[in-house]
């Protein structure tokens, strides 16, 4: 199970990658995509919305399940990965790269400190 | 765990019950973030039989329903779009429908393990009636062979709380499935316990018997974790 050192994680199996200008990319972890199995649909209709930490920002549908996606930190949703509408299986193939889900603008950057480090996340999924 | 038998009920009315219990459980969990002493939501398992209805999953395709609105009315079949996974399916009399509203954290279970457990329970249950079944890697539910599905399955989860569930054909009138492309999978068919039951010397199990057996196997497979003892100061 791949866990990237430079990312922060949540116990809901999301990752967040910080960019320089207080923006960040969010997606689901390698562990999460394996748990869900083949992803057939990613629905995110919250672009432009300002949401609190832990708010639901979308849903992901696999063959047998529909589950919610949670925002790791309070943020405005800037952009959705449009490629996922055409090819949701990208999340399975490349969860930390081309399978990113939203780009966000952080509203409370201090919340980053509450998130899990790669080591902590690895311990959680062991 | 609390088993609630809703008897024969429309899809809509059962959905209202599900949504209420689902929202209550999620609210208890969300409130816990501000509480020192965490409350555990009640785990409920709804059992029922629906009046005839076709339901379409979140990303399902309307083209998989082969009946016009007029014909649906004429035949007295309801139609519903829902937020479970999966495509189109049929629910009707003679089909055991189970909606577990469970807080998976209380069972130390991931969503994937939960789905596998549900499938395992149905496989075990059907083995009791000498019906051999299997999973399919890329399709949900439990199948007697690669073409015939006996139990449909689709789950929604939020904050580790589940809703929707499974539908097992006991003695369902399977002709209703002729009006749809079940699960959106061409060349697949529905079957039932009544159709698969082979022993000539015995009668197939009754609906009530299947329900009793299901609850027993379900209980054996789902054990709530003992509540954590409060941490001493």
Structure description:
The complex is a heterodimer of chains A (126) and B (233). By secondary structure, chain A is of the alpha+beta class. Chain A has a single domain, classed as OB fold (Dihydrolipoamide Acetyltransferase, E2P). Chain A is 18% helix and 35% strand. Chain A has 4 helices and 9 strands. Chain A has a 6-stranded antiparallel sheet. The model of chain A has no long low-confidence stretch (mean pLDDT 95). Chain B has 233 residues and is of the alpha/beta class. Chain B has a single domain, classed as 2-Layer Sandwich (BirA Bifunctional Protein, domain 2). Chain B has 5 helices and 11 strands; from the N terminus they run βαββαβββαβββββαα. In chain B, strands 1, 2, 6, 7, 8, 9, 10 and 11 form an 8-stranded mixed sheet that branches. A 3-stranded mixed sheet of chain B has the order 4-3-5, with no helix packed on it. In chain B, 37% of the residues are buried. The model of chain B has no long low-confidence stretch (mean pLDDT 91). β7 of chain A pairs parallel with β9 of chain B.
């Amino acid at each position: 199970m791949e866990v990237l050192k430079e990312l922060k994680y949540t116990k809901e199996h999301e990752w967040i990658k910080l960019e320089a200008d207080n923006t960040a990319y969010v997606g689901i972890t390698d562990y999460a995509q394996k748990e869900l199995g083949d992803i057939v649909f990613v629905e995110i209709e919250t672009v432009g919305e300002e949401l609190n930490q832990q708010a639901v920002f979308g849903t992901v549908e696999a063959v047998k399940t529909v589950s919610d996606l949670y925002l790791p930190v309070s943020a405005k949703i800037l952009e959705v990965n449009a490629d996922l509408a055409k090819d949701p299986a990208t999340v399975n193939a490349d969860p930390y790269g081309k399978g990113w889900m939203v780009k966000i603008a952080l509203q409370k950057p201090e919340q980053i400190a509450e998130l899990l480090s790669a080591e902590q996340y690895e311990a959680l999924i062991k | 765990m609390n088993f609630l038998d809703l008897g024969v009920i429309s899809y809509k009315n059962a959905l209202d019950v599900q949504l209420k219990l689902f929202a209550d459980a999620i609210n208890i969990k969300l409130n816990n973030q501000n509480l020192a002493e965490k409350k555990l939501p009640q785990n409920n398992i709804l059992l029922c039989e629906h009046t005839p209805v076709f339901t379409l999953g979140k990303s399902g395709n309307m083209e998989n329903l082969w009946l016009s609105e007029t014909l649906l009315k004429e035949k007295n079949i309801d139609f519903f779009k829902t937020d479970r996974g999966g495509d189109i399916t049929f629910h009707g009399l003679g089909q055991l429908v189970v909606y577990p509203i469970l807080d998976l954290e209380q069972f130390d279970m991931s969503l994937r393990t939960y789905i596998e457990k549900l499938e395992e329970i149905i496989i075990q249950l059907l083995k009791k009636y000498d019906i051999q079944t299997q999973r399919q890697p890329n399709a949900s539910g439990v199948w007697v062979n690669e073409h015939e599905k006996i139990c449909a399955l689709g789950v929604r989860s939020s904050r580790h709380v589940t809703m929707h569930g499974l539908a097992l054909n006991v003695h369902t009138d399977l002709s209703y499935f002729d009006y749809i492309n079940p699960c959106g999978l061409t060349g697949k068919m529905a079957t039932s316990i009544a159709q698969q039951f082979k022993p000539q010397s015995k009668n197939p199990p009754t609906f009530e018997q299947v329900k009793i057996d299901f609850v027993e196997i379900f209980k054996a497979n789902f054990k709530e974790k003992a509540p954590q003892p409060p941490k001493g100061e």
